[in-house]
Specification:
CATH architecture: 3-Layer(aba) Sandwich
CATH topology: Rossmann fold
Number of helices: 7
CATH class: Alpha Beta
Number of strands: 5
Helix content: 40-55%
Order of helices and strands: HHEHEHEHEHEH
Distance between the termini: 52 Å
Largest sheet: 5 strands, parallel
Shape: globular
Length: about 210
């Protein structure tokens, strides 16, 4: 009797999970999103990776007066020999600014190690510049699935300072938290994040094995 009861319960749970899979998967993805930016920051900081989504989102925040300037982190070149064939973050940002006919002050955050290879690296680079510039309030822009991990990395590195950090999540036109499982890019983003985020939590400082995308 107990075995039958256990089986019935398991089947019921499975049936519930199947019928509610969209809600479950959406909630799972929503966990990784932190979106708490408010206006009045000293600068909007665009993390490297996802140029097509992060830079336009940052420019939209600028247009809404969230901050008077944009900062771009500097990522390490993946192939130095052909690096000159590809546009830098700053060049892409300037092209978008020109296309939108905007007037935006932009600057690349100087790198401590000739280009960041992780979100932790970006945090250390930004901390150094923040001390020089005297920043008190910064908005970090990255893709929605990357916001929680990025927030953790920056909070860890900025611990002990009085600099206020906030996240602004950039969306894309391929997938969202509510349909990510319907595209390869969405699956890749959210499944990998379930591995990357715990690794960041277990590391108190730097994770050189995980790139900043």
């Amino acid at each position: 009797m107990k075995k039958w009861l256990t089986l019935v319960i398991i089947i019921a749970l499975l049936a519930t999970a199947i019928s509610q899979y969209k809600s479950i998967l959406t909630s799972y993805a929503a966990f990784f999103t932190v979106n708490n930016a408010i206006s009045g920051a000293d600068a909007i900081v665009v993390l490297s990776g996802g140029k097509a989504t992060r830079i336009p989102h940052a420019l939209n925040l600028f247009a809404q007066d969230y901050a008077p300037r944009l900062l771009l982190t500097d990522e390490k070149k993946r192939n130095i020999r052909f690096a000159h064939l590809f546009s830098t973050n700053e060049e892409i940002a300037q092209a978008m600014i020109d296309e939108l006919k905007m007037n935006v002050q932009i600057k690349t955050v100087p790198s401590l190690k000739k280009g960041a290879t992780s979100t932790f690296d970006e945090a250390y680079d930004l901390l150094q510049l923040s001390k020089i510039e005297g920043f008190n309030h910064l908005i970090l822009v990255t893709d929605s699935f990357h916001t929680r991990r990025a927030y953790h990395a920056f909070q860890t590195v900025f611990e002990g300072t009085e600099i206020r950090l906030e996240m602004s999540a950039a969306q894309n036109e391929i997938f969202t938290e509510s349909n990510w499982w319907t595209s390869d890019q969405g699956i890749s983003a959210y499944v990998l994040e379930s591995i990357k985020y715990p690794v960041y939590l277990l590391s108190s400082r730097n994770v050189t094995s995980i790139r900043n995308d």
